[in-house]
Amino acid sequence: HICVGTMSCFGPPRTRLPDAVSADLERIVERVAEFYRGPTKCLLISDQGELQYESDGDVGADMKTVENLCILRRASLTAGQPVPAMHLRTENGVTSIYEAGDGRWMLAVCCEMHPTSAELFDGEAAEAIIREDLRELSASLATIA
After folding, report:
1. 54 contacts 13 by C-beta, under 8 angstroms
2. Secondary structure letter of residue 139 according to DSSP
């Protein structure tokens, strides 16, 4: 999927997600709400740039930041140096990208929070808390051709 000008890199989803994937995503949304300190939005993005899932919520996800983190994530895979997660702290909150399935899927978490909370955000702790949920999501996503 190619970005042109100011257009979004995210295309529309191709398929409806299987029920098992949807259930795993709902569980992750609940888990994320426990350790991100502020309103959050979760996004599931395929390696082709297709936005497959977006959780409910009034969080203004900075899609340009998400796109840039996805590009960095893809570059790490291409370089043979996969990074399991990336976190970007800004004055408005934290945006995280997690490996969500054999390099083919990424889970983005966008959270609005106070600058001090963003600065104190512990990405390694967040990764540890969500790791098992991501493993289950990865197994569910493996069923999608």
Report:
1. no
2. H
Say if residues 142 and 135 touch (Cβ distance below 8 Å).
Answer: no
* 50, 1 Cβ separation under 8 angstroms: yes
Structure tokens belonging to residue 142: 């493996």
Beta bridge partners of 54: 43
In tens, the pLDDT along 43-81 reads 999 887 888 899 987 787 778 888 888 888 888 878 888
Closest CA to 69 of 126, 142, 129, 10: 10
Write the pLDDT tens digit of every residue in 78-133.
Answer: 888 878 889 999 888 999 999 888 778 999 999 999 888 999 999 999 999 999 99
Distance CA 112, CA 36 (A): 9
Query: pTM value?
Result: 0.85
Q: Phi and psi of 86, rounded to 5°?
A: -135, 145
Non-local CB neighbours of 114 within 8 Å, separated by 6+ positions = 37, 38
Q: What angle do CA 136, 139, 143 make, to 5 degrees?
A: 140
Angle at which helix 123-141 crosses helix 19-35, to 10 degrees, equals 170
